Amino acid sequence: MSGDVDAFGKDPAVLEALRPRLDVLLDSWFRVIVEGAAHVPADGRVILVANHGGALPWDALVLIAALSRSAPGFSGRQVRPLVEDAVMTAPFLGTFLNRLGCVRASQDNATRLLNQGEACLVFPEGEQGLGKNYRRRHQLQRFGRGGFVRLAVRTHTPLVPVAVVGAEDTAPLLGRIDAFSSFFADLLPWLPVTPTFPFLGPLGLLPLPARWRIRIGAPVDANERVKDETDAVAINALATSVRDRLQRDVSDLVEQRGGAFF
Q: What is the pLDDT of residue 57?
């Protein structure tokens, strides 16, 4: 751990130490292609809104690694994913993601980060996204009650949609095992079942070499669409509009990509 750990636990030295391995993961294993990185502002507050999926939160890690690259076609900016409690409290995994810049999802944490001029990454599907069975892959779930829109309106922050394809193929969720003891129930609400886990033990947690596609859309000015953060109808309408836009982009990227592994 370096001496530059921030109040949320991010340690820049961890990302830098992992950079060579992450570059190999992105370029050779996932073959990540990013479109529209220029829509991510170079500085200042912004809320990136992404779809969520897969048995493990590879999407948060890939977006951190991909967007922070300064190579052509990438934004060169580190984002701060807001991740659900079930992931952030998981042994080892939560601490690791925390060091990379992930933060427990809450309105208070998001507001503090935005007030510091950070780029927050939100997954409005939450646990519904991670708990989505493989047969429902690429189908966005409900976006809660539009908390990310309310946050954008209150803090005068632009919303940037980010469509992600690849997470559900890298860690396909075939089923779930409810916690089978009080000990595990305190750690994880359920255990994922994938083609390789738990059958191969810890090795089963390694990602499959699926191809990833990421499309970053043009910013949306929430304050133009919603004049009052207490207007539930307007907030829900904008949240639905962003979700529909992401669904269209995800469907387009799936068709554009072709096969998931070749």
A: 85
The predicted-structure confidence for 80-123, as pLDDT tens digits, reads as follows 999 988 788 887 888 999 999 999 999 999 999 999 999 999 99
**CA pair distance 57, 87, nearest whole angstrom:** 8
pLDDT at 36 over 90: yes
Total number of residues shown for the chain: 262
Cα-Cα-Cα-Cα torsion 130, 135, 137, 140, nearest 10 degrees, comes to: -80
- 66: CATH: 3.40.1130.10
Task: Specify burial of residue 103 (Cβ count, 10 A radius: 0-12, 13-18, 19+).
Answer: buried
Asked if residue 2 belongs to a domain, the reply is no
Are the beta carbons of 53 and 253 closer than 8 angstroms? no
Query: Residue 201 phi/psi, 5° resolution?
Result: 65, -150
**How is 191-259 classified by DSSP, letter by letter?**
EEE-SSTTTTGGGGGSPP----EEEE---B-HHHH-S-TT-HHHHHHHHHHHHHHHHHHHHHHHHHH-S
Tokens of 29: 């294993």
pLDDT in tens, 126-140: 888 878 888 899 999
pLDDT at 72 over 80: no
CA dihedral 178, 181, 183, 189 (to 10 degrees): 10
**Residues forming a β-bridge with 205:** none
Q: How far apart are CA 236 and CA 74, in angstroms?
A: 31
Q: Cis before residue 207, ω within 30 degrees of 0?
A: no
Domain containing 92 equals: 12-257
